[in-house]
Structure formats: C-alpha cells, structure tokens
Amino acid sequence: MHVVVHEDPGYLTVEVEGQYSLEEALQVIERVRVEADRRSCRRVLFDVIGVSGRSLPTERFRMGLEASAVWGRQLRVAVLSTVADFSLYTEDVAVGHGAQFRSCADKGVAIRWLLQ
Asked: Which of 3, 48, 53, 61 has a 20 to 30 A CA-CA distance from 88?
C-alpha cells in the first residue's frame, strides 16, 4: 500500500492507496502514530478510500485492537472510508478498547469531529 502524509490546519492527513493486506494495514497503523509523533500532531484524518480489497471480520477486529494499542487516547483519528462494515466494526473494537476513533464516509463530518 502507498501512503502519503501531509499537514492540514489543525490535523494530519494520512492517505492510503493500493491493495489491502492485513500485514500492511497493521504497519500503516504504526506509521500513523510515528508521523503524528514526528509532527507533534494529535489529530489525524486517516483516508483509506483508495484501498481496494476486503478484510475478514477477524482482521477488522485485529486492526481495531492494534489501533487502540498503538494510538491509545493520545491520538484522535477519523477514518474516511466507503466500506461501512470495515470501518464501523473496527471503530467499535478500537473505541471499546480506549481509542478516540471515528469512522466516516463524509470528509466534512470527519474533519468537524477531529477539530471539536
């Protein structure tokens, strides 16, 4: 998967494109934290609209656990995705384990949540 990172006023944007794989998705979760720490930014718009392929429910669970472990409460992350079942299940797991995580299909809604 290809990752592009850029700073926006008040938050960091991490855009991901390419074919989904669990291993790479877990690496990208870690990279989000590294990039946020490097820039001293605690709010992240994590755009995965450009990722193709589907994940299994067990993989979505694993990604939610990883997000909560890596991002914790230190990062506020809005995931922009068109695949509702991916992001909502992952959100439920991450939030249930203490993460500040929100899934959105609308970029404006995601940014408003990040900045509130």
From this structure: 3
Query: Would you list the DSSP string of 17-38?
Result: EEE--HHHHHHHHHHHHHHHHH
What would you report as the CA-atom Rg of the chain, rounded to the nearest whole angstrom? 12
> Both ends of the chain: CA-CA distance in Å?
30
Six token digits for residue 9: 């006023």
Cα separation, 26 vs 34, in Å, equals 13
Q: How far apart are CA 19 and CA 37, in angstroms?
A: 26
Over residues 23-43, mean pLDDT = 96
**What is the value of pTM for the model shown?**
0.91
Look-up of token digits 């991901």: 16
Backbone angles phi, psi at 30, to 5 degrees: -65, -40
Q: CA-to-CA distance for 13 and 65, rounded, in angstroms?
A: 21
